[in-house]
Amino acid sequence: MNGMAIVNCNSQLLILGRLRKHPKPSKLLYMKLFLHTDGGSRNNPGPSASGIVIKDDTGKILAAFGEYLGIQTNNFAEYSAVISALTKAKELGATEIVLIADSKLVVEQLNRRWKVKHPNIQPLFLKCWNLMQQFKKVTIKHTLRAGNKEADAEVNKILDARR
Q1: What pLDDT digit, counting tens, does each position of 77-96 carry?
Q2: Residue 24 pLDDT
Q3: Fold topology of 30-159
Q4: CB proximity list for 95: less than 8 A, separation 6 or greater
């Protein structure tokens, strides 16, 4: 009786018919990722880069990368890192993210506690805001530089290579 369900109810034998096998989901329905971001500009404004490290909820690094941004400000670099991290998290299938950054400005603005006044930053903020809407839950946390060493190392690796 392969695939049949047999149930014994009050000494009566019932055959319920074939059991359907449910297919395994091809994608996870829930994935929480931790996005560590940093941006740096030498001589602000100056040569700039973003650094991103993405981890799963066990601490395993899923992605570590950065990008040279040209001559920019540190705030431009910080926001660019967040945009890259959010984009990659979506590609990886995240449903929930915890964004961890050492930029007080970025954290406070994305948490809507500080206004976005600078006209060059407003479009970057809006891009981040729109990307964040794609996730079921977003938490944004500030950390000190010491708590963001891996993302900072990505920034420095890129900037040092351009010397």
Answers
A1: 999 999 999 999 999 999 99
A2: 52
A3: Nucleotidyltransferase; domain 5 (3.30.420)
A4: 28, 29, 30, 31, 32, 135, 136, 137
